[in-house]
């Protein structure tokens, strides 16, 4: 690491990754946004899932001011977030075979819907099985992952495959295996993860593309407004009323 401050080094690393995904994933971002727009146009529903810290990027596009009101969070008990006690249980559940299928079979997902699955490594049983089972249900799958893990780690799914192998569209976050951008001689482990920053930016780019695509088709995108601006709550109430049958986070 150079003599510059660690904070500056981290910002430089994050900016570099953002520039890479902007340039290298542009086609996939466009395709993912178009897929979501197609789903909305066809009266389908939108869902997002992430386990552990990957759930942060999923939650960032659900019930979000400036975001599509139709994006719903698909939850797996004990896995979404790090609030489960002990927190290590969530990591263990990601490796349990059969859990994803049980969750999908009891969820509202159906033929014609779209599911965004976020998993940095893409190697655990839960995201792999979820993608496989979702596609068997004729749900379109967008995977957000670091493709590097597939060549540098061993899959934990019985099939030996990764999330990227079971998606209609893959968005590569470019995050290095281990998710730590900085090293320092006085610190024995690499540190400063950037996956949340990059993955959230990737997904917001997809959502922006979806909204603009709908508008280009003459369809007003079902966007939410901040409840902290004048008229925001009334605006959202009208959106909820119009699209209530495709919004599940209010029930």
Automatic annotation (TrEMBL):
PROSITE patterns: SIS. Coiled coil: none annotated. Residues 36-221 form the SIS domain. It holds the Pfam family SIS_2. One of its GO terms (biological process) is carbohydrate derivative metabolic process. CDD domains: SIS_RpiR (cd05013). Signal peptide: none annotated. InterPro entries: RpiR-like_SIS, SIS_dom, SIS_dom_sf, SIS_GmhA/DiaA_subfam, UPF0309. This is UPF0309 protein ADL12_17700. Belongs to the UPF0309 family. GO terms for molecular function: carbohydrate derivative binding. It comes from Streptomyces regalis.
């Amino acid at each position: 690491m150079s003599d510059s401050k660690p904070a500056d080094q981290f910002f430089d690393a994050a900016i570099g990754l953002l520039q890479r995904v902007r340039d290298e994933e542009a086609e996939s971002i466009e395709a993912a946004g178009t897929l979501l727009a197609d789903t909305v146009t066809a009266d389908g529903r939108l869902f997002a899932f992430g386990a552990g810290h990957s759930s942060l990027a999923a939650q960032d596009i659900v019930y979000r001011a400036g975001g599509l009101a139709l994006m719903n969070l698909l939850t797996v008990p004990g896995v979404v977030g790090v609030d489960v006690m002990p927190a290590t249980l969530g990591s263990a559940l990601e490796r349990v075979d059969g859990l994803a299928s049980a969750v999908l079979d009891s969820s509202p997902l159906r033929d014609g819907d779209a599911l965004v699955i976020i998993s940095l490594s893409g190697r655990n049983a839960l995201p792999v099985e979820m993608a496989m089972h979702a596609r068997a249900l004729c749900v379109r799958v967008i995977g957000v992952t670091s493709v590097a893990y597939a060549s540098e780690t061993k899959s934990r799914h019985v099939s030996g495959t990764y999330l990227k192998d079971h998606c209609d569209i893959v968005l590569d976050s470019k995050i290095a295996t281990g998710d730590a951008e900085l090293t320092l001689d006085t610190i024995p482990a690499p540190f400063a993860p950037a996956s949340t920053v990059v993955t959230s930016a990737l997904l917001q780019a997809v959502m922006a593309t979806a909204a603009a695509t709908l508008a280009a088709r003459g369809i007003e995108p079902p966007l939410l407004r901040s409840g902290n601006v004048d008229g925001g709550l009334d605006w959202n109430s009208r959106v909820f009323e119009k699209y209530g049958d495709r919004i599940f986070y209010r029930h």
